[in-house]
Amino acid sequence: MLPFKVVIPVKAKYIFGETRQCYRAGIYIPERDSRPAQKESKACGCNGALKIKQFKKSPTIVTFYMTMDHNSHVHGDRSEIRTLPLPFEAIKLIEDQLRSGSSCRSTRISVLRQIDSWGVGVRKPNYKEIYNRMKKVC
Question: Which of 1, 57, 70, 97 could form a disulfide with 107 if both were Cys (CB 3.0 to 4.6 A apart)?
């Protein structure tokens, strides 16, 4: 057994090191028999992985590199918009209008009109997302 004041040197090469998987990694098998209206899952079995490293000898430089490329989907494709979360501003608009007492339908129409004025690059909520947000608020 070592005494308490002994320092054991450790040769660590990294200040920070992490591997991140694609957000569409994994596989989900939908239960179509019990839930016929279930939407498609964003999990499609993608193997995409990103390594992030920060070395001790150069702490101001962080390296990012892909260890495996995306498969089973095209990253950034237009069809992936459905898997992205709603923008914070849209959630705030929905919650404010629902708290003020307006119906789910009128909230959706009003929010869509306001988001149309924001521009092209904003994901628009659908009726189910507003309804789900209403259930969380109430």
Answer: 97
